Amino acid sequence: MGEMNIYGVYVPMLLIQAIAAYAVLRVLMLFLDKWVEQGWIAMPSVFYLCLYVILLGCGHWLSAAVL
């Protein structure tokens, strides 16, 4: 893990990764909402939570692989 210094404020890398994962999730939700309306996704809240955790895990893994 680590932290990033932004204008004298230390911000945890996990917070940055979480915000990035949420931004990607919101973009994906624009496309996945059509499937929710058609009934292809039974429990959208649980589906979106799992998708967010997967995106956060991928972002963390990618960050750890690069650094």
From TrEMBL:
**What are the transmembrane regions?**
6-28, 40-62
Q: Native species of this protein?
A: Acinetobacter pragensis
Could you name the domain of life of the organism this protein comes from? Answer: Bacteria
Its keywords, alphabetically, are: Cell membrane, Membrane, Transmembrane, Transmembrane helix
Which InterPro entries does the record match to this protein? Answer: DUF1656
Q: Which Pfam families match?
A: DUF1656 (PF07869)
Q: What is this protein called?
A: DUF1656 domain-containing protein
